[in-house]
Design goal:
InterPro entries: Ets_dom, ETS_fam, Pointed_dom, SAM/pointed_sf, WH-like_DNA-bd_sf, WH_DNA-bd_sf. This protein has about 230 residues and is α+β, with helices and mostly antiparallel strands. The chain is built from eleven helices and four strands; from the N terminus they run H-H-H-H-H-H-H-H-H-E-E-H-H-E-E. The structure holds a DNA duplex (16 and 16 nucleotides).
DNA sequence: TAAGACTTTCCTGGTT
DNA sequence: TAACCAGGAAAGTCTT
């Protein structure tokens, strides 16, 4: 399951999404589905609050039409709700099977978010830019975990969101994730932190004296500030 | 192929 | 004592 998840192609993902119950969808599948639905309307994707699109299949299925209108607006909300109902009817299968699959998927839910290759069609560029990794550098990897605190499984937390101060809560777990991304199973926090310290010279990070596991984004780090994130509806 | 940027690995020594 | 921090040195990887 692990390897398959990380190597799932765009075509595989589309096939899985079209055949599986929405209950089994990953976050990526939900994003693709939203993207496909936007393509069929005149909806301006730039006005979408992408932070609210970070849903997996089970979360999506719990939403009523009013919930969807609240999140996606009066134009796209009902459209998505109808589309979901149709897809649910089409893929009506025993939920127990889906549940088992969903539990496995959810274990790797965040890893998929951070490690899969972004899909790149014109209409989902914005979604991919915010929810897929935007770079291969360590500080970007850290930043992308921090941008979605509700999805980071307690790995990192903001100490001061406005100032860009953050803290490692599970240092070794973050190091292992970084190692996984770089295909290096021997990565440790000790090594990761050495790379972090090199960022001080380049003003990507600033020192936070006297605070263990605490770092601060510097003037050359971009994409972490609230006003740098895509617009809210 | 070379050069440079970036990261990894190892290390010593200091601090919490 | 363990975990973390600071930073030098050298080597590895990747991109241009």
């Amino acid at each position: 399951v692990h390897n398959n998840m990380f190597t799932q192609s765009k075509a595989d993902s589309h096939r899985f999404r079209s055949q599986a119950s929405p209950l089994c969808w990953t976050l990526e599948n939900v994003l693709e589905w939203i993207s496909d639905n936007i393509e069929g309307t005149n909806f301006d994707a730039r006005s979408l609050n992408l932070a609210y699109c970070a849903l997996d299949g089970p979360s999506l299925c719990k939403m009523s039409q009013n919930d969807m209108i609240g999140v996606f607006g009066p134009q796209l909300g009902p459209h998505l709700h109808q589309s979901l109902l149709k897809h649910k009817a089409k893929t009506n299968a025993p939920e127990t099977i889906h549940r088992k699959h969903t539990d496995i998927l959810s274990t790797y839910y965040f890893a998929v978010l951070t490690l899969t290759t972004p899909f790149r069609r014109p209409t989902d560029l914005v979604i991919a830019d915010i929810l897929a990794p935007r770079g291969t550098h360590l500080w970007e990897f850290i930043r992308d975990i921090l941008i979605y605190p509700e999805k980071n499984h307690g790995l990192l937390k903001w100490e001061d969101r406005r100032e860009g101060v953050f803290k490692f809560l599970k240092s070794e777990a973050v190091a292992q994730m970084w190692g996984q991304k770089k295909k290096n199973s021997s990565m440790t926090y000790e090594k990761l932190s050495r790379a972090m310290r090199y960022y001080y010279k380049r003003d990507i990070l600033e020192r936070v004296d006297g605070r263990r596991l605490v770092y601060k984004f510097g003037k050359n780090a971009s994409g972490w500030k609230l006003n740098e994130l895509p617009s809210v509806m």
